[in-house]
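Sorry to interrupt, but I need a hand with the structure work. I would like you to pick a protein and set down its sequence and fold. Please put the record directly below this note.
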Amino acid sequence: MYHEVMRKWVAALRSGEYTQTEGRLRSVDPNGMYSYCVLGVLCDLHRKEHNPDGSDYHYQWEEKVKEFGTTTTAYANHYDNLPASVREWAGIRHSEPDVAADPEGDGTCPMSLTALNDDYCFEFPALAELIEAQWMRL
């Protein structure tokens, strides 16, 4: 992963600007409030850098699916993993990057950031710590 992008991502995760969700890159609740998973924050940073005025269709959030009162949005037609455009910009090798983590306390093992966000409920500051410490492996 590129160091400059890692710094932006970690800062965004720690900023309090983003509300956290699980199971999708971004969702919109019935009140119009957005929430993002850890990978969705990275997608949003990509969008802000590549499409600040919202004019380029390829770098927009698109509302796709409504379920249980929440709308799921896709970025570059991806709902829950990183599109190629974001991976190339960030220098990330895989659509679901992993870090060494120990969520159950039984020994460190590779875990996807998605699993840590969705299944183990790691909050953004804890995910930022892992990303910052292991950015070169991403």
User: Anything to note?
Assistant: The radius of gyration is 14 Å. The longest strand covers residues 61-67.
